[in-house]
Amino acid sequence: MTAPDEPRDPAGTAAEPDPGTTPREDAARSADTPPPAADHPVAGAATGTPLLELDAVSKHYGNIRALEEVSLTVRGGRVTCVLGDNGAGKSTLIKIIAGLHRHDAGVFRVDGAETSLASPRQALEVGIATVYQDLAMVPLMPVWRNFFLGSEPTVGRGPLRRLDVRLMRSTTRERLLRMGIDLRDVDQPIGTLSGGERQSVAIARAVHFGARVLVLDEPTAALGVKQAGVVLRRVAAARDEGLGVVLVTHNPHHAHLVGDHFVLLKRGAMAGDHAAGEITLDELTRQMAGGSELAELGHELRRAAPPGPDSDE
Amino acid sequence: MSATVESIAAEDERLLPRSPLRRLVSRPELGSVLGAIAVFLVFAVVADNFLRAGSLGTVLYAASTIGIMAVPVALLMIGGEFDLSAGVMVTSSALISSMISYEFTANVWVGVGVSLVATLAIGLFNGILLTRTGLPSFIITLGTFLMLTGLNLGFTKLISGTVATKSIADMDGFPAARALFASHLSIGSFAVQVTVLWWIGMIAVATWVLLRTRAGNWIFAVGGGRDAARAVGVPVERTKIGLYLGVALGAWISGQHLLFNYNVVQSGEGVGNELIYIAAAVIGGCLLTGGYGSAIGAAVGALIFGMTSKGIVFAQWDPNWFKFFLGAMLLAATLLNLWIRRRAEATR
Known about the structure:
The structure holds two protein chains of two kinds. Chain A is an alpha/beta fold. Chain A is built from ten helices and twelve strands. In chain A, 32% of the residues lie in helices and 21% in strands. In chain A, β9, α7 and β10 (244-249) form a beta-alpha-beta unit. In chain A, α6 runs parallel beside α7. The longest helix of chain A has 16 residues, at 225-240. Chain A is globular, with a radius of gyration of 21 Å. By secondary structure, chain B is mainly α. Chain B has one domain: ABC transporter involved in vitamin B12 uptake, BtuC (Orthogonal Bundle), CATH 1.10.3470. Helix content of chain B is 72%, strand content 2%. Chain B has 15 helices and two strands. Chain B has a two-stranded antiparallel sheet. In chain B, α4 (53-78) packs antiparallel against α12 (236-262). Chain B starts with a helix and ends with a helix. The A-B interface holds A 12, 15-18, 20-21, 25, 27-32, 132, 134-141, 145, 148-152, 154, 161-163, 165, 170, 173, 182, 184-185, 187-189, 192 and B 3, 6-7, 11-12, 14-15, 17-18, 208, 212-214, 216-217, 220-221, 224-225, 227-238, 287, 291-292, 345, 348.
């Protein structure tokens, strides 16, 4: 780490929260965390106390069991993938980790201490940043303005209080470069970047504002193969910076490329829990797709239609 | 990809390879500046008197009366909202000031002060109604536009018995207030109306706020992506209310000029001006959908209006053509802006 890599804690980090925001909106303000990371060892904490630990956590909405006894461990420098089909409970899990909902049963530990996050802001304060699919970016604004939106550093006082444009530009460039993104021009509107690059900027922003645990909600869902590769590289870069990453996805191919640990969800319950060495991509895909269910589906489709080359896909 | 070549260049100044021309082309003001140059050249050729100092002073004055409002209206549009009540709000502000002073036989500064508070209250009303209800600003300000139009006429008739207010020219404080809002300074043979100074001040403050303060960042953000802005902690409601207050402030300055320039106020004035302000802002590069534009562009848009309205007179054309020229210019400028922006984005 070189000195210029730490130009943060601008005067403006203490942006007051808008009292009017709902919890849901609060959650995505990954840029707004005061950097709490200073006294936390960031790098390579693969052993020792996990950053985040869910032990048999459950969540019920009325009489609906959204999540039933799900366990999950997030360590610094490791990527934990949460896999599951639609309705498997992925969103509920994200909401609990992001502080949008409290869990009903089980134990939620941050740095080994039992906790129950009351708000997204509290989640951010302990260093959990969530990057949602919409990314919370303004397409027409330049990259550097987006990077600091809501937490702009300023210099000067009174009527002369102004944006620290130089710091904003150089920090944005450095942070992106560190993530391996070499932008030609931080002045270009962020809407002109590709989907993968935008996702990368969102990740870089969360890292810059002090995230220790990065929760990514389907970061590759809307992207082509090449763009997905770009994003997965950033995930690896965040991991290499010592962050614990929770990658939520329904794509086993992407998960298998970067994951150190795989948690499979099905209908709100754990359907599998594997370390990277223990499971092959084929097996992961099979479990993810629901093995026997898929075979049954193939069987059903074959009877309904004339056999085609990919009727059992 | 020339990215490798560029990253070899000094790492802080990788911006250099981007040609100055391309930077210029990506400015929102470009279309309006080109338009202003064209209009200037046309009238410089066809109207003999156009280039005389006195004529240019008149042009600047006409531009400033529109520009004082076009600049805050542009900021509001960048923030993603409209204000259709902006035109009649000017008249309301002047009427309030005049009537308070006259009816209470008070010093005119009392009227000026009450008018400031009342006009800001109208802006606040627009802003709060907008942020609380979530209704489109078009509807809300159309409502206040109609209400203010009625109130202006109704109250004036009720209080003074005619459609205009009584002259306040002989009241205490009038000369000083007139000096502030409706005097002119002579620089050699060049007479500059004080409104031009107000206008320039407005441009400077608006540009500073827009480009160099957190509030400016928030204005672009609430106009270009409200939900995203809210998600990262931008106070969306406060920003929008602030923009409506800015328009009200402009209306107050314009209104006081109107009053102290003519001593009396015609209660039916101002209707239709709101569209001229919006047109000036759009000529200046503001997107109707918000999130893009500039204060300087809006000021140049106002300058185009000033040049056209006075240039037609100097060229001794039938002034009835004025509106046609404005309409044509609005379309041309919008198309030019669109074309420039497409090119700017394509050539990145």
